[in-house]
Design goal:
The chain is 24% helix and 32% strand. With 442 residues, the protein is α+β, with helices and mostly antiparallel strands.
Length: 442
């Protein structure tokens, strides 16, 4: 991977006219904030003017001439950005170089992949740190030697240019590849869409791009979502690139008397390097007719010597059997409907929500993790896939709010915590009001 990065840089830096085509200064900038004598926070962005939806990396580093004993980093709130915090390796990246004849050390504190979601001037939040430079503090003395923050970094977010006439609008920026396939064992009833690239697939809605002949598509189900990060190091500069892979399952309803086919997907993707749109084509597939749509021929009637062949029962036995079967089917459908509409009791949620309500005012940082565990347990007991169902349901709305702040690393304000609690109390099947508890906790 590092070899690829070096070749890329060498290939982009020069062309036939010996003019540089690419440089780190063109693609990003580094900002230095002095937080104490001999201590600086360096904020490095891989793009200072990204387009809407374009991913870029943010790296925060501590520059010091002495090794710190301990560092505590506060959460951040990224307003107007989609963000993903990239975990640091066990061995933190450290760069040591001579500055004014003295060795200077640079420690990576936090690294983030971000995508701006709106066209305007946006600011990256400062990084707040607590640093201990010496040994453990004496009793009664302040524990931290330095408590400070870097400065906010302002970015100019560029709009996406208008697509070609007649082309649909898209928020996908970067690279994209994919394929369509029939789901194994579905007998032509389900198709699978795989997409991968640096374009942010959180902005992709499959049904906006699906077209079919002889089939109708139901709401897609996200069955797999994963990502991996590539690191590009050149000198003292670093850039991160995230590849995403999503897989959706889409159930199809065939229409009788017509050829069944999922048409080619034509997805516009913006290339920020070239400044142009590219049309990514994913070949369509033919959909097999479900095997059970072909009915077997009905057996012929046997001779009148069979039992029940004469009289009233003999004449109407088929109608009687059909009535019995219809009654049994109706009873089964009613039973399933009643089970589905009746809320599933979750008595444990009473004490869990009481704990969450206390944390809302006393321990806001623990609030998100507790809410996340409640939602995970509820999803497991109800066989739900979080984030892939009805976006208007209290459960999915609550899941979105909780995960948004968990991934951004920020602390939810009081009004958001109050909304999360309201949504949890509105989840079906809880059977408890906001001021009620279970019998075992009374």
């Amino acid at each position: 991977m590092y070899r690829r990065a070096v070749l890329l840089v060498l290939g982009f830096m020069f062309h036939s006219d010996d003019k540089p085509l690419f440089s780190w200064e063109d693609q990003g900038r580094a900002f230095i904030a002095q937080i104490a004598p001999g201590l600086k926070i360096r904020t490095e962005v891989s793009s200072h003017s990204p387009h809407v939806g374009q991913q870029f990396s943010i790296l925060y580093s501590l520059v010091t001439q002495r090794y710190p004993t301990a560092i505590d980093i506060e959460p951040q709130q990224y307003s107007g950005f989609w963000t993903e915090i990239v975990p640091l390796a066990e061995q933190t990246r450290t760069i040591t170089r001579l500055l004014d004849g003295r060795p200077t050390h640079e420690f990576t504190l936090r690294q983030i992949i971000a995508s701006p979601m709106e066209e305007c001037a946006l600011g990256l939040p400062p990084l707040s740190v607590k640093i201990m430079m010496g040994g453990p503090a004496a009793a009664g003395a302040p524990r931290w030697d330095v408590v400070a923050s870097s400065e906010s970094v302002s970015l100019t977010v560029l709009p996406l240019p208008a697509p070609e006439a007649g082309a649909a609008r898209s928020l996908l920026v970067g690279t994209l590849a994919g394929r369509l396939a029939e789901s194994k064992g579905s007998q032509g009833r389900e198709v699978i869409l795989d997409l991968q690239g640096t374009a942010n697939l959180a902005f992709f809605q499959p049904l906006d791009w699906f077209r079919g002949t002889g089939v109708t598509f139901l709401a897609p189900r996200l069955v797999q979502a994963e990502s991996f990060v590539e690191t590009w190091d050149t000198g003292h500069r670093r850039r991160l690139t995230m590849q995403q892979h999503h897989r959706w399952a889409i159930w199809t309803i065939p229409q009788d008397g017509a050829a069944r086919r999922v048409e080619d997907l034509q997805i516009p993707v913006f290339d920020p390097g070239r400044g142009t749109w590219a049309n990514v084509r994913i070949p369509g597939i033919d959909v097999r007719a479900p095997s059970n749509t072909t009915r077997a021929p009905s057996p012929e009637l046997t001779s009148s010597s069979e039992p029940w062949s004469g009289g009233f029962l003999g004449r109407y036995r088929r109608s009687l059997w059909a009535g019995v079967v219809l009654a049994l089917v109706s009873l089964g459908v009613w039973f399933l409907w009643k089970r589905k509409t009746e809320p599933v009791p979750h008595p444990w949620m009473g004490s869990s929500l009481e704990k969450l309500q206390r944390q809302s005012s006393r321990a806001p940082r623990s609030f998100l993790e507790t809410a996340h565990k409640i939602l995970e347990r509820y999803a497991d007991e109800n066989h739900l896939i979080p984030g892939s169902g009805d976006k208007d349901s209290p459960f999915d709305q609550c899941w979105f709010e909780v995960e948004r702040f968990r991934f951004s690393g920020g602390e939810p304000p009081s009004e958001v915590r109050h909304r999360i609690l309201q949504l949890l109390y509105a989840v079906p099947g809880k059977q408890l009001g906001p001021n009620e508890t279970t019998d075992e906790h009374r």
